[in-house]
Design goal:
It is built from five helices and nine strands. Strand 3 and strand 4 form a beta hairpin. The chain is elongated and about 50 Å long. Helix 2 runs antiparallel to helix 3. The protein is an alpha+beta fold. The termini are far apart.
Length: about 140
């Protein structure tokens, strides 16, 4: 399926994760302590409370996120999707690289630098700017 999509002549962009490296969305992390200090009571209020993953009910994202982070064993967690969405808001918060669309065969990526069909790879996310904007946005809601 991915080869079919990569062969289409439509814009295609990839927000890399790259676990354990500083170049992907995995590097954009919030610490448990920051979430506790900065998120309580933040975000727009909802008329109907939402059930939490670990019990409880919440009427704002900030309180829900505090509860989520109270149940992690690490000191910080990656905010993968939020980092990917942040570059839609401001593409300057990551680097984009245009490459020839690769192919996927037998469980491996095959690079095709000469491929005229290109895609965009996003990497090197600016964690500080993304997290600053995240907390600032939550303060405004």
């Amino acid at each position: 399926m991915v080869n079919y999509i990569l062969a289409l002549s439509v814009p295609f962009e990839v927000a890399t994760v790259r676990y354990g490296k500083s170049t992907g969305t995995a590097a954009v992390q919030a610490s448990v302590e920051d979430i506790r200090l900065k998120m309580r009571g933040k975000g727009p209020r909802q008329a109907h409370r939402v059930a939490g993953r670990h019990g409880g009910e919440f009427d704002c994202f900030g309180d829900y996120s505090v509860d989520l982070f109270e149940h992690v064993t690490e000191k910080s967690r990656s905010l993968y999707d939020m980092a990917a969405a942040a570059i839609v808001k401001n593409p300057g918060w990551a680097d984009s690289v245009v490459i020839g669309a690769p192919r996927f065969r037998n469980g491996r990526w095959i690079e095709q630098p000469e491929n005229p069909r290109t895609i965009v790879i996003w990497e090197n996310y600016d964690k500080e700017k993304i997290m600053h904007d995240f907390y600032r946005t939550m303060d405004q809601r």
